[in-house]
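Design job #97: recover the sequence.
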């Protein structure tokens, strides 16, 4: 019976290794992926048993810039995204939750293949509002014209301008939209002139909201507020009206522009430019000087 040859330790260490270049990694433990670190070693409730929409108690385990990871007693930690912390804007996750906090959350989605769970602290109604806001077209939220018909409003404005109105009279209006530079207020033309009918939306500029300085439109009015305004001016061509919440006597006078304006700065001074009549002086100097003209010379070489 032949003796079994002993396998050298170096060769045994390479067993299962594709090449000798990888031999140094044999003793190194496998590195977990980014999501694997949130999976528990002692498995909890299988993800397949979690019910979307159910409310569960959770403990905040880790905080990240984009949200928080929660222990909900399942096989994987759940992600509470920053957008689902509050219906208001959240700049810092720790302004709402901190590590170790006990919270109640709603399960939004479960991905058993990736081992991921998404939860929310918002109600289903608030989630729906956020989804609708994201679908809405971006840009400034300008108010809709009364009845949605611009031509009808322009006709109403033209009729009001023709019948005349009292620019000092205050009437009741409703704030329909606010922007950084003012508020749009809806008023009835029947309150401005006899025989007139219809509604128009006018801009009340931020400077016309109060006698005092206004830092923000929202400090004075909000959408839905009932306010007292007066009609300042009408632009029939553009179909616009200007409103004011302060009397004509209290409005600041418009800034007057100086007729001359700012004097134009010359690029060079008179001293730097030198003699301004150089052309005339040169012509006078050349008057008594002989002139020279370059004429062609013809040489007859036939002789």
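Job complete. Output follows.
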């Amino acid at each position: 019976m032949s003796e079994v040859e002993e396998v050298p330790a170096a060769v045994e260490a390479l067993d299962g290794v594709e090449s000798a270049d990888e031999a140094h990694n044999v003793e190194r433990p496998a590195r977990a992926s980014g999501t694997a670190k949130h999976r528990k070693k002692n498995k909890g409730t299988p993800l397949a048993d979690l019910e979307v929409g159910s409310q569960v108690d959770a403990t905040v385990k880790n905080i990240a810039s984009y949200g928080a990871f929660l222990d909900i007693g399942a096989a994987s930690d759940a992600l509470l995204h920053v957008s689902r912390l509050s219906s208001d804007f959240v700049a810092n996750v720790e302004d709402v939750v901190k590590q170790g906090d006990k919270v109640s959350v709603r399960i939004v989605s479960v991905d058993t293949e990736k081992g991921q769970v998404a939860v929310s602290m918002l109600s289903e109604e608030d989630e729906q509002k956020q989804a609708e806001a994201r679908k809405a077209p971006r840009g400034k939220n300008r108010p809709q014209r009364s009845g949605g018909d611009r031509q009808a409003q322009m006709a109403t404005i033209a009729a009001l301008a023709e019948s005349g109105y009292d620019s000092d009279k205050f009437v009741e209006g409703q704030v329909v939209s606010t922007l950084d530079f003012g508020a749009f207020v809806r008023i009835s033309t029947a309150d401005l002139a006899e025989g007139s009918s219809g509604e128009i939306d006018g801009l009340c500029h931020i400077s016309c909201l109060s006698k005092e300085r206004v830092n923000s439109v929202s400090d004075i009015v909000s959408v839905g507020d009932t306010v007292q305004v007066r009609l300042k001016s009408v632009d029939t061509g553009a179909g616009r009206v200007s409103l004011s919440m302060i009397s004509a006597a209290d409005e600041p006078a418009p800034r007057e522009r100086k007729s001359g304006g700012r004097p134009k700065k010359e690029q060079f001074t008179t001293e730097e430019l030198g003699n301004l009549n150089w052309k005339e002086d040169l012509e006078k100097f050349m008057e008594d000087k002989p002139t020279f003209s370059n004429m062609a010379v013809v040489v007859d070489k036939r002789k």
